[in-house]
Amino acid sequence: MKSTRLIAAEILLNVVDHGRSLNDELPAALADTELDDQPFLQQLVYGTTRYYFALDEIIQKILDKPIKDKERIVHMLLAVGLYQLWKLNVAEHAAINETVSAVTESKRKWATGLVNASLRRFQREKDAILAECRRGDSFPGWLNKRLRQAYPEQFAEICGNSNVPGPMTLRINAKRVIREQWLKLAETEGIVAQACEHANSAVTLAAAAPVAMLPGFDAGDVSVQDEAAQLCAQILELNDAARVLDACSAPGGKTGHLLESAQNVQMTALDVSAERLQRVGENLARIGETAELIAADAADVELWWSGEPFDAILLDAPCSGTGVIRRHPDIKLLRKSADITALAKIQRNLLNKLWPTLKPGGRLLYATCSILPDENSHQVAGFVAETPDAELIPLTLPADAETAAGIQWLPQVDGHDGFFYALLEKQL
Ligand SMILES: C[S@@+](CC[C@H](N)C(=O)[O-])C[C@H]1O[C@@H](n2cnc3c(N)ncnc32)[C@H](O)[C@@H]1O
Predict the structure, then answer these.
(1) Is the CB of 216 under 6 A from ligand 1?
(2) Where is the signal peptide (predicted)?
(3) How far apart are CA 271 and CA 214, in angstroms?
(4) Is the domain of 215 the same as that of 244?
(5) Buried (b) or exposed (e) across 116-137, using 16+ Cβ within 10 A?
(6) Distances from the Cα of 52 to the Cαs of 117, 221, 306, 348, in angstroms?
(7) What whole-number distance in Å separates Cα of residue 387 and Cα of residue 355?
């Protein structure tokens, strides 16, 4: 069986050089790894991805010349070794010796001396090398620039918070159990949890737990969902029997929450990906809810819309995911600056195309898990300026940043993800 360190380096290579996501890579690798080694593999993969830009800078400082393209696995093994010495509580001799063994295992015996010497040099000169490192927060230059521009005061905190893994937060199904009752039940099972401050359905666990251990998970009493994502039902405030469109629904977290938030909601859940839409069906089945599921591009309105307008629309738009980097650190490696312009165009097109499907007097909630104004406040302000019957409804929830439109939440350690909401009403 392959060593954990070599598997981690191979995954890192596939993410950095071949644009693969951790979701593509990690499940199969974990399935091939001994149960006892799985947490360490996850730690190495998430950690080296999270700190890749900084690790890369350290490697450039330590090596006299870059490693050749066809030997890039050695570069990634060095990153795995350095990460252990920098960030993990692993015995240093084990971190070095096991990483060097993984170099041999990768059939790059020529590189064992180089990796050994490089790791030992870092071990000796760590403080001096790190003091010179300009990319300690490990964000790509383009994102750094955009965040610094958007949040000059909060920039450092945003990067820091985005490097701390998010807590496990749950949504309590109000149709089935009261939040305080569930907290008591959890306590009797030895699970430490507390009610979240803003979302009235949310509780955060002191430590992540397998879902099978959560009271009532199989029965649909609880679902895993960040607090920020749970504001959606609270903001939209559906009436019973409302006719609702969830335009970008997969995997169905918010679809489920909207269905739990009122009685007899007539839900149409769209997603462009038929494969991902299946997950919506599975997730709704667990919580005992149903929706009309349609695999379609939401912008192709004439292909899927019956012509009967909706009382409410959720547009949880495809976005950069820059508010959830702490949960998906590969976003820092996979996204490029040009993606933001392309995504903003897609988002505006979805807003324009879906607006006619909303009833006069109806409300559309625009949401993203981005923290970039071009996808959020600028996007919505631009849409409102060009859409005479669209009115921006002020939200009373506290925000983490001033915006021209909507509320912007930024990632908080032990708290919620970065998220954006803007509520629009169609004038009568
Ligand atoms: C942010 S995720 C939605 C998360 C979901 N609302 C939830 O809470 O679980 C965005 C989704 O939009 C889908 N999507 C992207 N472009 C789309 C389009 N043009 N029409 C419909 N769905 C689209 C993606 O497949 C993805 O599942």
Answers:
(1) no
(2) none
(3) 29
(4) no
(5) bebbeebeeeeeebeeebebbb
(6) 20, 39, 48, 33
(7) 9
Distance from the alpha carbon of residue 246 to the mean position of ligand 1, in angstroms: 9
What sections of 51-173 are H helices per DSSP?
Answer: 52-62, 72-87, 92-105, 112-132, 141-150, 155-162
- Let me know if residue 420 belongs to a domain: yes
We report the CATH number of the domain holding residue 220 as 3.30.70.1170
- In the chain, the number of structural domains is 3
Relative to the CA of 273, which ligand 1 atom is closest?
25
Its domain, for residue 218, covers 169-224
Assess whether the C-beta atom of 299 lies below 6 angstroms from ligand 1.
yes
Is residue 253 part of an annotated ligand binding site?
yes
Q: Which of 224, 227, 249 to mutate to test the pocket of ligand 1 (most atoms within 8 A of CB)?
A: 249
CB of residue 256 inside a 6 A radius of ligand 1: no
Co-location of 233 and 273 in the same domain: yes
Name the residue with the closest Cα to ligand 1, atom 1: 318
Per-residue pLDDT of the chain (428 residues; tens, 9 = 90+): 899 999 999 999 999 999 999 999 999 999 999 999 999 999 999 999 999 999 999 999 999 999 999 999 999 999 999 999 999 999 999 999 999 999 999 999 999 999 999 999 999 999 999 999 888 789 999 999 999 999 999 999 999 999 999 999 999 999 999 999 999 999 999 999 999 999 999 999 999 999 999 999 999 999 999 999 999 999 999 999 999 999 999 999 999 999 999 999 999 999 999 999 999 999 999 999 999 999 999 999 999 999 999 999 999 999 999 999 999 999 999 999 999 999 999 999 999 999 999 999 999 999 999 999 999 999 999 999 999 999 999 999 999 999 989 999 999 999 999 999 999 999 99
Residue 229 assigned ligand-binding role: no
| Residue 279 Cβ < 6 Å to ligand 1 | no
- 369 catalytic, yes or no? yes
